[in-house]
Design goal:
By secondary structure, the protein is mainly α. It is built from 7 helices and no strands.
């Protein structure tokens, strides 16, 4: 219950008009310390993921990439490569690589410096696309077809 209240306070900090991301990161560390020793690994992984997202917001992209890379290995070992938390971690890691690429380019880095991050971004998002739930993809395609057919009927009237 104490940890749940603490998480609520952290979420409020995140929703502030101008969040103090360093404080948010510190609060996630404190929250991790409040959890019972026998807490499910997926709960700890979700907290670490939220902390990494806060690091990205404060432009500690290198730190976030290091944290997310380790977290991805741990989550995949517990929840599987396509587990919900693992996918969220992988998606955030892809975003972190993208931000790293953008920051390096904006600061005048050479192509040799930013290209590896761009390549990792591409690899991560390709993996996510190739491993999405086939049923969800089929449902999406049916909705697109139905919407297209509806649009065609409306335009023919």
């Amino acid at each position: 219950e104490k940890a749940r209240d603490h998480l609520g306070r952290i979420r409020e900090l995140e929703r502030a008009k101008e969040p103090d991301w360093a404080t948010v990161v510190e609060e996630y560390d404190k929250l991790s310390g409040e959890l019972p020793q026998d807490e499910r690994p997926s709960v700890r992984h979700q907290i670490r993921l939220a902390k990494a997202k806060a690091k990205i917001e404060m432009l500690d992209v290198a730190g976030a990439i290091a944290d997310l890379s380790q977290l991805l290995k741990e989550s995949a070992a517990v929840d599987g490569e396509d587990g919900t938390t693992t996918r969220a971690i992988r998606e955030t890691l892809g975003k972190a690589y993208f931000y790293a690429t953008s920051l390096l380019k904006a600061n005048g880095a050479t192509e040799d410096e930013w290209r590896p991050y761009a390549e990792r971004t591409r690899q991560v998002f390709r993996y996510l696309a190739e491993h999405q739930d086939p049923a969800a993809l089929a449902d999406y395609e049916k909705r697109v077809e139905a919407e297209f057919a509806r649009s065609v009927r409306q335009n023919n009237l």
